[in-house]
Amino acid sequence: MVLPPPPVLPNTTQGLIALNAINTAIGAAQIWENGDQQTANQMFAQAEQTAQQSGIPQAINYVQTVKTMVTTSGTKRGHRMLRDGQRECIMPPAAVLDYLTVASMANGNLLNWATLIEHENVGFNVYRAEKDVNEQLINQVQINDTLIAAQSEANWGANYEFEDTSLLPQPNITTYYYMVESVDAEGAKIFHEIVAEVQLNTPVTATCELYGVQDQALNDAIFFRYDPQRNTTQQIGNMCKGCDIEAMDDWGDEIYVASGDDARGHPQGYIYKLDTQTGALIPVGNSGFKGITALAFDQQGTLWGWAVNKGLVQIDTQTGQGTIVLPAPAVKASDLSWDLSSELLYGVIGSQLWSYDPITGIPAQLCNNLPRKTEALEILPTNILPEGQILLGAHKVGLELHAYDMSSCQPVATRNVPIPYDDPEGLAMPMAACATR
């Protein structure tokens, strides 16, 4: 029997406990296939207990799914007889959930979830609940009118999105909980252990500071803000595990960010707004691309981005959907920024600085000696940086900001920012907020 791939786990003590549970379940599956069902059942019980101790829903769900797949492989829907009289085990109906997230939106709560594997799964139901004083789920109600159809092909996983617009705010209730249920071809239902929590609140907009995102390890994100007047830096909220935020820019007093192709437990190529007080990500929508590595607003409020393996794109800020403008599948831009008149778009590609003219559609290389590991680019008003200069962010030991002259291709000033971060993936300074200061 082919088992589904295990979920990505955090590199923590709880993650190691979860890994132990998953390995025990896989071992139990092998022993079951060898005919020792008594020992396998004991191992499954141990795996379930260990998964519960880890407190990681993906591990709990995976262990339960493997047990169901293996222990039902002897039922009539789990095997077939071959012509030579031998029994061939086949995978029973199953859906393994990778993640489930929910965020408060203007018109309701937006859910996103993904599966690692699906077999004979026909769709999902979504449930909303509250909690009582003992932290037990109560008032659970199904919120989808019709079954949400499965999108998986050839037993692989798929991504899903559902917006709960039926919620009527209740006095003294600010937190809701969501769960999903998969339904197989025979009508059997599996209620998945992952519970997503959302608080109904209004995102806090940006102030006149320099905002950034630190790429921690492979795909964790830490948001921060730097006050150039006080020369102080503050982390925004907690680290976002597996979010892989690769791009950032501002429009008005709002900060937009986007995820790259290494996101795990969160959707790839997704557009969000950033709550600058809590660090919460407010979903805008899926770009339709594998990942977004750069964002830049022009003066008309059009959002541009760079899509992994695709090139320059325009992004709808209402839906998040992207449209290719300049195909460049072999190129990766680490950041973009428009000039103050929106006549030229500038981009960082490795150690090179490029420009793009939207009228002619022609890109041009300007410089090829940018500071090592430059990953952030920002053009600021002339009262902050003189015309013809750009702000570059490079990571070495701490964050290094460079005022860079584009005509001479030389840095004219360098400032080390006192922050404990060394890998900025994007910078944004909301000029609308600075104008009201």
Please outline the helices and strands:
Blueprint: H1 13-33, H2 37-54, H3 57-71, E1 79-81, E2 87-89, E3 94-104, E4 109-119, E5 121-131, E6 137-142, E7 148-149, E8 159-164, E9 175-184, E10 189-191, E11 196-199, E12 210-216, E13 220-227, E14 232-240, E15 245-251, E16 254-259, E17 270-274, E18 281-286, E19 292-297, E20 303-307, E21 311-315, E22 322-327, E23 335-338, E24 345-349, E25 352-357, E26 362-367, E27 374-378, E28 389-396, E29 398-405, E30 410-417, E31 424-428, H4 431-435
Antiparallel strand pairs: 1-2, 3-4, 4-8, 5-6, 5-7, 5-9, 9-10, 9-11, 12-13, 12-31, 13-14, 15-16, 16-17, 17-18, 19-20, 20-21, 21-22, 23-24, 24-25, 25-26, 27-28, 28-29, 29-30
Mean pLDDT over all positions: 83
Measured by DSSP, the beta-strand proportion falls in 35-45%
Total domain modules = 3
Low-confidence runs (pLDDT<50, min 5 residues)? 74-89
Q: Level of helix content?
A: 10-25%
User: Main beta sheet, described?
Assistant: 6 strands, antiparallel
Shape verdict: elongated
CATH architecture of the largest domain: 6 Propeller
- C-alpha-based Rg, rounded: 25 Å
> In the CATH scheme, what's the topology name of the largest domain?
Neuraminidase
Give me the oligomer status: single chain
The CA-CA distance between the termini, in Å, is 64 Å
CATH class of the largest domain: Mainly Beta
Give me the secondary-structure category. Answer: mainly beta
Query: How many alpha or pi helices?
Result: 4
Number of strands: 31
